[in-house]
Amino acid sequence: SSGGAATSASSSASSAPAPAVNTCGSALTITAERLPGAQDASYALLTFTNTGASACNLGGYPSATLLDDKKASMTAPLTRTADTVSTISLDPQASASTLLKDSSVSCQAQTRSTYVRVSAPASSKNVDLSLALAPCALSARPLVAGTNPQP
Fold this sequence. Notes:
This protein is mainly beta. Helix content is 0%, strand content 43%. The chain is built from no helices and 13 strands. The strands form three sheets. Strands 3, 4, 7, 9, 12 and 13 form a six-stranded mixed sheet that branches. A four-stranded antiparallel sheet has the order 1-8-5-2, with no helix packed on it. The protein has a three-stranded antiparallel sheet with strand order 6-10-11, with no helix packed on it.
C-alpha cells in the first residue's frame, strides 16, 4: 500500500482554465527529480506530498522557474498545456505530481540550470530545489493523483 489514497474529486473540461486549488497550506512537501527523457526532451518529476494529519485538496498547475547557480532566473514563464485540470483529494502522506518538460531539441543552450524554483498551485510559497535542465521551452501539465504522470 502507498500509505494514502489520492482521488480525483472533480474535473473541468471547459476551455477556460480551471481555478487553482490548494487547501494543503504548509502541510505540503515538494520534491523534484530529473528523469531520463526521449531524445528531443528532458523531464523532471515534481511531486507534492501532503505531510499533514488530515486530507487536503490540490489542483491546477504549479509555478516553476529555472535558476542559475546564483539563483537568478534563466527562463521565460512556464507554458501550461491545455490538459483537463482536476482537483485531487490528498489523504495524509498521499501525493500529486506533474512533469516539467524541457523541449531542448530546438534549443542550443550550453548552460543548464542549477535549481528550479517551484510553488504549488494557488500558493506564493516558493521552494528552490536542485535540478539541471536546459533553460529553453519549459512546459508543465496540471497535477495528477499519484507519482507517475504521463509525458
